Amino acid sequence: MTCTSCEAKVKSALLMLENVTNVEVSKDENSATITMDKHIALSDLQKALPEKYQISATNHNEMAEQTKSWFETYKPILLIFFYISLVTILFQFKNENFNWMQAMQYFMAGFFLVFSFFKLLNLKGFAESYVMYDVLAKKVPVWAYLYAFVELALGIAYLINFNPIITNTITFVVMSISIIGVLQSVLNKKKIQCACLGAVFNLPMSTVTIIEDALMIVMSGIMILKMI
Predict the structure, then answer these.
(1) Which residues have a Cβ under 8 Å from the Cβ of 164 and sit 6 or more positions away?
(2) What pLDDT score was predicted for residue 80?
(3) So what's the pLDDT on residue 2?
(4) What's residue 51's pLDDT?
(5) Would the pTM of this model clear 0.70, i.e. be above it?
(6) What sections of the chain are H helices per DSSP?
(7) Under 8 Å between Cβ of 43 and 60
């Protein structure tokens, strides 16, 4: 940067980025101090700048920052999976041998009960997010409202071991439909909010959402095969 005009251009370009809250630029020190709500990759900062400007960071490990940012973003869902897994494992201490079928049953009960709880905290907010990407909700908007109650019913069904064939079949079908919209959004790189935890947490749609749905599909599929 050679003049105040350069400072203004750099500052303006960086402030245009999402999650950037403040930028201080100095042509004398040839530096920019960027304040952001969440980590932004150096490559994204570079893309925002005019071609004549190059940006780098001293004492900076981009991989470590991205990893830290990923964990901060998905901390709510990681903690939920940890607690559900912990309870599932603790239930198995009363058995002489680890019962995988029972473990999957309790895990799925916890999964659906917890996730439906967050959706029902703000049902309208969840429905508005869900209808943006779910293939069925787009055609039948009321499904976005019903989905939270379907998850609640499935959670109760797994908890009381209600007709495992019917429960797992419904899970397999519902989650298979759900994952279609998720896959389309992730593959098309759409930057939309994931509705998995309702409107309580602002989680981006990503491969984590795919894994979440796929896990339920695989577990329900295994349980169906074991019972027929």
Answers:
(1) 105, 223, 227
(2) 92
(3) 78
(4) 79
(5) yes
(6) 4-15, 42-48, 62-91, 100-121, 123-130, 135-139, 142-159, 164-187, 207-227
(7) no
